[in-house]
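Good morning,

Attaching, inline, the backbone tokens for the sequence recovery test we're adding to the shared suite. The designed sequence is right after.
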């Protein structure tokens, strides 16, 4: 089948594009390259350098006639969303509506949407958190993602548009962008490679940092492969249901990199939540999906990617 991937030059979606192509699907990528990288684009994919808010997106969908839209393009940073909520809403809400309008108009069979399990629930009373818990988002980024989920429900109810929402926990792995809270693994790795200290954001009652659920990008890719055939009109958590403090995460990375650089403890930022951990039993049941990669093995693979990247730069 033909799949249009928004944000396909980015960290997560470029891996998904590779996997779709490997399975024999035709892939069309739409990306404005604001955070994506041309080097991530699979040469077998057809690429359009365009913003999802652009009215010309309609011509692409009309011409390419994709069966599926996999929507990963987004303003990805919680801190940026708190500083510029208008920009966040323009990209994450209005840009998505542009996609949904054209998906209905040109008979898209399914929209797969990357939402956020790591931010959407806020500081949830239910922990680990299931999809039945009513989200209490505390950042414009999370609010926008939740709004899009509601728009998807509307477009399904009103026009019969099929969808699947994947609520990711904190995704990490090769090609990750070292920016924002979600990029903490790559930030720590790059800082150590550059012999720089990293910031460890904490609350007074949590001196070892925020608690998060870290899922490897390879496992996220598997969920997106399954999503082509399963999970109609559902909202599903994608994580590993394991708590890790950012302090523990940093020390694991530092140990694997033989680094003795200590992080600097800083106060929490606007939009930060104390803890997040996702119950993934629904993904097990509906998608028959299970994470396979341990945090240690995933970190090892990510470190190797960034070390190789630095070596290539030094050779040049």
């Amino acid at each position: 089948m033909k799949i249009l991937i928004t944000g396909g030059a980015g960290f997560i979606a470029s891996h998904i594009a590779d996997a779709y192509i490997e399975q024999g699907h035709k892939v069309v990528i739409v990306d404005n390259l604001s955070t994506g990288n041309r080097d991530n684009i699979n040469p077998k994919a057809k690429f359009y350098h365009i913003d999802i808010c652009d009215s010309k997106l309609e011509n692409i969908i009309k011409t390419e006639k994709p069966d599926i839209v996999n929507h990963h393009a987004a303003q990805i940073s919680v801190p940026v969303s708190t500083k510029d909520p208008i920009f966040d809403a323009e990209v994450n809400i209005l840009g998505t509506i542009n996609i949904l309008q054209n998906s209905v108009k040109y008979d898209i069979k399914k929209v797969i949407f990357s939402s956020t399990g790591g931010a959407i629930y806020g500081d949830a009373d239910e922990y680990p958190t299931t999809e039945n818990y009513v989200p209490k988002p505390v950042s414009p980024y999370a609010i926008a993602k939740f709004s899009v989920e509601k728009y998807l429900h509307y477009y399904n109810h009103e026009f019969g548009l099929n969808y699947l929402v994947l609520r990711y926990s904190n995704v990490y792995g090769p090609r990750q962008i070292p920016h924002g809270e979600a990029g903490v693994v790559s930030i720590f790795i790059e800082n150590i490679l550059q012999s720089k200290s990293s910031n460890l954001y904490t609350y007074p009652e949590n001196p070892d940092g925020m608690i998060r659920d870290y899922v490897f990008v390879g496992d996220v890719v598997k969920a997106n492969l399954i999503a082509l055939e399963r999970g109609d009109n559902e909202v599903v958590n994608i994580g590993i249901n394991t708590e890790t403090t950012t302090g523990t995460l940093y020390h694991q990375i530092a140990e694997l990199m033989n680094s003795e650089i200590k992080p600097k403890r800083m106060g929490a930022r606007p939009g930060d939540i104390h803890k997040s951990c996702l119950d993934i039993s629904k993904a097990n049941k509906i998608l028959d999906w299970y994470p396979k990669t341990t945090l240690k093995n995933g970190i090892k693979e990510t470190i190797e990617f960034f070390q190789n990247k630095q070596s290539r730069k030094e050779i040049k």
